[in-house]
Amino acid sequence: MEVEVKLRLPDSASHQRLSNILSPFHIKTHLQENVFFDGINSELSSNLAVLRLRFYDLDTHCIVSLKAKPIITDGISRIEEDEEPIDAAIARACVAEPWRLSSINLSRILKRVREEFGVIENGLVCLGGFRNVRAVYDWNGLKLELDETHYEFGTSYEIECESSEPDRAKKLIEEFLKDNGIGYSYSESSKFAVFRAGKLPQ
């Protein structure tokens, strides 16, 4: 189970201001490309699941993940997540030809897609995806991730923090944002849900 605080920032100015304030705590920045897949008969999405390939930093590496049963309440997201590394060159070939994914026999996750969700061989389709610039900070014992997410229909800004104590983390982050005059709201849906909706949250 992945548990994260997710707070949405209103605009690029707020994102830039927060980035400047957090700069002394910066660890690294990742360029991410997220590509999603479903079964031909919507076997994953009909079970509130999604298969994702995430490419990092111009294909230096890639992670395949299976996420299921998302719940997001008051800015805290809980979702079942399973992930493992996959060769980036193979993954890139799978984006072009999704049938290749279901033929990867050594992947625990792709075995689950076949056995648990009944996706037949050659039965995956690519849904498309979006790009994300993620800056990572080590702040007050928390790993903060500041996201600038580029969809075809616009750009959104969000701060995330995975934590085993999400209520405490959320309180610290909210106080920090308020003290620095940065507006925010609770994220009400995942990036994938925004992508599928085809429009930015209001």
TrEMBL record:
<dbReference type="Pfam" id="PF01928">
    <property type="entry name" value="CYTH"/>
</dbReference>
<dbReference type="GO" id="GO:0016462">
    <property type="term" value="F:pyrophosphatase activity"/>
</dbReference>
<dbReference type="InterPro" id="IPR033469">
    <property type="entry name" value="CYTH-like_dom_sf"/>
</dbReference>
<protein>
    <recommendedName>
        <fullName>CYTH domain-containing protein</fullName>
    </recommendedName>
</protein>
<feature type="domain" description="CYTH">
    <location>
        <begin position="1"/>
        <end position="199"/>
    </location>
</feature>
<dbReference type="InterPro" id="IPR023577">
    <property type="entry name" value="CYTH_domain"/>
</dbReference>
